[in-house]
Amino acid sequence: MQTNELPIKVLLIGEDEEDFRRIATLLLEMSARRYEIRRAVDYASGLEALSGGSFDVCFLDYHLRSQTGVELLKEARSSGCTTPVILLTDIGDHGAFREAMQAGAADSLRKDEISESAIERSIRYAMDRKLIHEELRREREHRRQAEESLREQLRFQTVLAEISARFVNLSPNLVDTVIEEAQRMICGFLGLDRSTLWQASRAGTSMTLLTHIHQPADGPPIAEPVDLFQLSTSEWALQSSEPTPIFRYIQGEAYFPWVAERLKSGLVTLVSKAEDLPVEASMDREFLRRFGTKSTAVFPLMEGGAVMGCLSFDSMREERDWPESLVEQLRFVAQIFAHAIARAQADGVVRESAERLSLAAASANAGLWSLDVNTWRLWATDKARELFGIDPDAVLTFEKFLEYLHPEERGRIREIVQQHIASGTEVSAEYRVLRPDGSVRWMASRGRIYRGSPGEGDQLMGVLVDLTERKQMEEQLQARLREIEELKKQLEEENINLREEVNLLSRHKDIVARSDVMQRILLQVEQVAPTGSTVLITGETGTGKGLIAQAIHRLSTRRSRPFVTVNCASLPPTLIESELFGREKGAYTGAISRMVGRFEVADEGTLFLDEIGELPLEVQAKLLRVLESGCFERLGSTRTVRVNVRLLAATNRDIDHLVREGRFRSDLYYRLSVFPISIPPLRERPEDIGILVWAFIHQFEKEIGKHIRSIPKRSMEALQHYPWPGNARELRNIIEHAMIVTRGSTLELHLPSIRAPGDAASEAGNLQDVERKHILKVLQEAGWRISGKNGAAEILGLKRTTLESRMKKLGIHRPKA
Prior knowledge:
- It is elongated, with a radius of gyration of 57 Å.
- 45% of the residues lie in helices and 17% in strands.
- The chain has five domains: 8-139, Rossmann fold (3-Layer(aba) Sandwich); 167-346, 2-Layer Sandwich (Beta-Lactamase), CATH 3.30.450.40; 364-466, Beta-Lactamase, CATH 3.30.450; 516-680, Rossmann fold (3-Layer(aba) Sandwich); 764-817, Homeodomain-like (Arc Repressor Mutant, subunit A, Orthogonal Bundle), CATH 1.10.10.
- The longest helix has 51 residues, at 116-166.
- The strands form seven sheets. The protein has a five-stranded parallel sheet, sandwiched between helices. The chain has a five-stranded antiparallel sheet with strand order 7-6-12-11-10, sandwiched between helices.
- Helix 1 links the parallel strand 1 (8-13) and strand 2.
- The protein is of the alpha/beta class.
- The model is unreliable at 231-252, 495-506 and 754-765 (pLDDT under 50).
């Protein structure tokens, strides 16, 4: 029995009131201070109390109303209850004891045997069994932990074996990668937060630099390079909030002096708690705290008895111990790392020496070679083999060397080498090499014979350089010279045509064009100008019909006489006749004086009737008479006036259409179109846009006082793709606007949505909208027939391809049936 003053907590589970009172009375009589009693009267409340696990012993009645006490005990044990249970049975319950023991009861007590001594014996027996079971449980747990520790050690040994195997015959250039992977594996297995590897600098200084690190992605950044022991700047401050650097240092002081001294002696430093460090390691303790390190193990990297750096493993989240077995294993890892680094450094020295020798041999992009005259064995440097495309390990002979030459070169080179060996003179040759990939390279070799001692053979030694680029440049130069000669001939052939074109343009200074169609129109102007024939000039508004008319007059025999222009669209129908033919005083109301008409003013000269399609029919008849006879009468006069006038007419209207509608006399149309000239719209000759732009710029430079040096490429492309419904006149207006708003020497050009002034459709949108609506209307009238007679292209006066292009640009599609 327990002898301490704490009471023993007893749980009574049973439905019999008499049994409960008898047991409780006996317990209280035994000692009121030693027992604390609680009762549960049914299965549910008894299971809940017993499963709570806060009792030292339980008396459980076998007979419960709903289920047996054994069933309650089984359910309690399944939920993890360890309280000792004494089962109360009746005289006839022979199998209850065995059933209770199998369910995990500590003892069984018959109700007819209940006494103070029996209760005390059962309680002592039950609690002794509990102590024994608890001891066994602790023993099993200790054994389990030992087995788990052993398994962990075996697993770690497996990891170390895997790491060690990776360093066997490891290529030096992979050492760094494998070390960092090993750090990651060890930290992951041991639950460590960081591993760092520091190496002594090979630059002749005492610095120890961080070269390898593994830490969590959110770990503190490390400035590179970091000197482990010697601080290098004039100030120290922890910068944990900045991405880099993590520290600044105090000049000339070490921040791990105690650890540094131990490493110099080849000692391992183990720190489970920073507070455990000795007094002389106060600075080391401070820096561990600042770096967030709670525990660390630092191992020296030893090679040949010298310390070449150190390897550390750190815990930053919690403190931890470093068992001797783990320390030995990590010391083994440090040895593996040290040997691998030493091998890599040694290999680096060898490779550095080899690279210097190779660089010296190839400094002039040349290869060296030597031919043994007696054995005809050939030695060549790596550069020489590279130029030929020869495998570095291939055995070379003179015959094998000849196989790498172009077939056309082999015989010549064999003969040259044999001649120079026999004569002992210097050999020099240029030849082609056929590389394994099929490419041909040009090489130049120069060498001389060196006579060996009686015990040695003669050697033909020399140098080899690649001439491919020089040969290619020579070929390109020759090709360019031939091209220049061809261009020169072509230029001479085109010079005559160019002079004719220049002369043609020089005679038409007001007309700027370079397109073929405009060149043909200028030729037509020169053909018709000397004659007295009537010319009908057609074209859209703004295409320059007036300029063509002026050019015809300027080149004609009448150029010294007047050039009179009449815009038929600008005159009211009632005044056109008097404007053309004149009037007498009193000819009509308001005619208070005599007026000479434009025909009389243009006598012996040229009369240009612009927009002739707007002439009223009655005026057309009188105009036809003038054209046929040269005679007319002024308004209000019966006297016939005779004139000698050359008539030029222009219109943007479809005269054929007007004739069919009866709004223009067919006889006058035939009389006017003796020599028709049709000017295409600007959108059909985009090659004229650039030259027109610069012509307008030069014109406005003088007027506005600005100098333009360049036009943005995107602006010029926009001009090329603009439809130009207003043709050259619209282009001139846009350039004038751009000249006004430009502030520098680069033209600031914008293509606004311009509305046609006076156009009734201008309120419906911009010019593209108007154009789209007009094309749609014509297409609908033509039944969506684009080409052919009475097709939309013919009605619009456009080529079929031009109309299709405009439809695509404006998003016009033939409706589905």
